[in-house]
Specification:
The relative contact order is 0.03. It contains 7 helices and 2 strands, in the order αααββαααα. It starts with 12 loop residues before the first helix and ends with a helix. The radius of gyration is 72 Å and the shape is elongated. By secondary structure, the protein is mainly alpha-helical. Among the domains are: 13-104, no CATH class; 267-321, no CATH class. Helix 6 (160-300) runs antiparallel to helix 7 (303-321).
Length: 322
Amino acid sequence: KYLNRKSTPMINRKYWKGLVGVDLAFWSCSSPTSSAVLSFLQEVQLSRSGSPIVVLREVEKAGKSLGWGHKPKTIRIIGRDLIRDLVVPTVDPSGESLIISPKDFERIKDASHVLTKEERAAQEATLKAEREAILAAVNERKKSMQLKEILRKKNEKLNDLEEEAKERAQYLLERAANLRMEQEEEIKALSEIVLEAKCHAIRDAQILEKKQIEKEMSEEQMRLARMMEVERQKANKMQDELEQKRKEELYRGRRYMMEQIEKNNELHAIRSEQRDQEAQEMLDYLERLQFEDERVSQRNGQDLDEEKTPSSGYSCICRLQH
């Protein structure tokens, strides 16, 4: 793809260096290749010269032998929608094709195969089982060898030096065991002392915590008692104020009623006095009328009128008095 371009191609070095087993003799193109591309490809092959399937050749010689200098034969196909130029396939004229052995081919094939997750897990399990079997066999053989060595040492007779060394070792072992027992007893005693100290410390802490809780509870009760006393005093004060207001309202009500009674009495007295005065005025008026009637009757000398007039005036006076 890159070599078919006339200009200098943009080569991805990581891609080209990743190619293994590239035979430069098979690179061919229809256009002239720049020297930069050829030198880079030669560098790739030289850097991978350790591969067993790489055949190093001179690039320019291989190119001349393959006929890179001339254009390949093409056939033009004209269709309804497009025109295409097809390159006529040619056989490699050099005859230097790369041939590898079946073993190398299988190795490359196995290396190119990507294991799945299940295959990888099965392979790891197989390897693990093989390692465990090998370790078990090694341990079994080691135990059998140790058992044989112990039996050999038991059956073998000891000389004087070995017997003395054995007795000394036995003595040292017994002394070490006794010292260990003493140390264990001392350690046990120290552990009991430490445990007892911890128990006392925990008990003291619990007692202190209990006292602290009791103190806090008493303080809380005192605080609640003070709050209740304050609330009680507030309630008493409010009750006293309400009682005082009620008394004041009652006093004002009584005073207002007395004032209304006095006003009503005064008004009643005034009205009574007015009625008496009006009645007196009416009586005076009637007396004057009676007096006038008498004078008229005396003038006219009519006895009948004189008898009727006093009776009518007397009835009016009685009604007014009532």
